[in-house]
Structure formats: structure tokens, C-alpha cells
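fyi for ur records
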Amino acid sequence: MSRRLHWLALGLLLIAGGVGAAVDTFEFSSEQERDRFYAIGSELRCPKCQNQNIADSDAPIAADLRQEVFRLLEDGRSDDEIVDYMVARYGEFVRYKPALNRDTAVLWFGPLAFLLVGVLALVLLVRRRQRAVNESSDAGLSPQEQKRLDELLNKKSQDD
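which gave:
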């Protein structure tokens, strides 16, 4: 019985270890500022996780970025200034929706270009196949070829 209690206590300690994880607590001056903080945090990608925004990520770098966003909000920076600051520091990758410019045009228009190329290739393939079918049906035997075929078939039937 004592051994079971030891294992139970150990299990509870392991479970309770996660409870003490760091939670960001920020004191906002207004509800609007809190909303801005979460809007900006959901717009910025965590550089480590890459598929989570900084608001949802538990990575230490995301916590640092949240702290930096909070600091910039407290300094009175606008949303665009905060995002521009993060982009200048971490590159366009930090944004979930990168700005449309010369460097990111491929991200915006690449999928559409691939779709158009695929549709064009499909249309050309279907047309080529239809043309081949039409040519093969139009290309019957000439009268001389038909006569020769008939002769060969008659000879074959006479031999049998």
C-alpha cells in the first residue's frame, strides 16, 4: 500500500509540474488596448513554431515577442508601427499575411499561376487527344489498300 501511495504522489507531482508553467499577465490600461494586443498577437507568426501565432505559442521566443508587443503598445505605437518593427527584426516570415510587394509576389500569385498552367496543360492535352482520335477515324484505307486487304483475306479464307 505504501508503494502505491509513493507512485500516486510521484504522478501527482509530475502532473502538477505543468501547472506552474509561466503565464503571461499583462496589465492593460483599457479594453481596447487588450483587444489590439490580441489582434496583433494573432497576426504575427512564432519564428520557432512556424504554424502558430505568438498569442497561442508556448515557445520562449513567442513569450519574448508578446512582451515586446506589450512594451510597444505601452509606448503608444500604432498597430502598423508594431508590425513593421517585428517585420524589420524578423522578416516578412513573421506575418501570416505578408504584404504584397516585389519580394512576396510569388507567395500571392504563385498558386494562381500553377493553377492556370495546370488548366492550360489539361486543355492542350484534351485537344491533342481529340485531334488524334479525329485523324485516326478520318484516315481510312485508300481504295488500293482496301482492295489489297480484301485479296489477302480471300486468300486466307481459301487456304483454310
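DSSP finds six helices and no strands in the chain. thats all i got for now
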